Design the sequence.
């Protein structure tokens, strides 16, 4: 089934998240996220990561995963003693999720379907 291939954690296109953390992010943290960490015998890494913005006490990161295992971002950050304040999936492959509410859906365009099928 096409939808299962697109949404299954181990297959399909990359998943991109915006993550608010409980501290400021420095270059060392960003590098560590991409290098990853072994947590309970499982290697957790971010395919890519970047700093979106930071305030006085918190930062927003963009983290891209090539697979989205259960609570992968939360477990990876927890291994570095970092708490996740907010976690929002913003993109699947090239498909921008925009302002879809949690559990919401919309009809995909022909172009989006073709793009997702190529990634799946």
Sequence:
């Amino acid at each position: 089934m096409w939808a299962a291939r697109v949404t299954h954690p181990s297959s399909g296109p990359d998943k991109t998240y915006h993550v608010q953390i409980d501290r400021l992010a420095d270059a060392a943290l960003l590098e560590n996220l991409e290098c990853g960490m072994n947590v309970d015998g499982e290697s957790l890494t971010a395919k890519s990561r970047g700093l979106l913005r930071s305030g006085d006490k918190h930062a927003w990161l963009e983290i891209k995963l090539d697979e989205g295992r259960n609570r992968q971002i939360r477990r990876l950050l927890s291994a570095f003693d970092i708490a996740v304040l907010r976690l929002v999936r913003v993109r699947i492959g090239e498909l921008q999720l925009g302002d879809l509410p949690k559990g919401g859906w919309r009809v995909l365009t022909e172009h989006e379907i073709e793009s997702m099928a190529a990634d799946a």
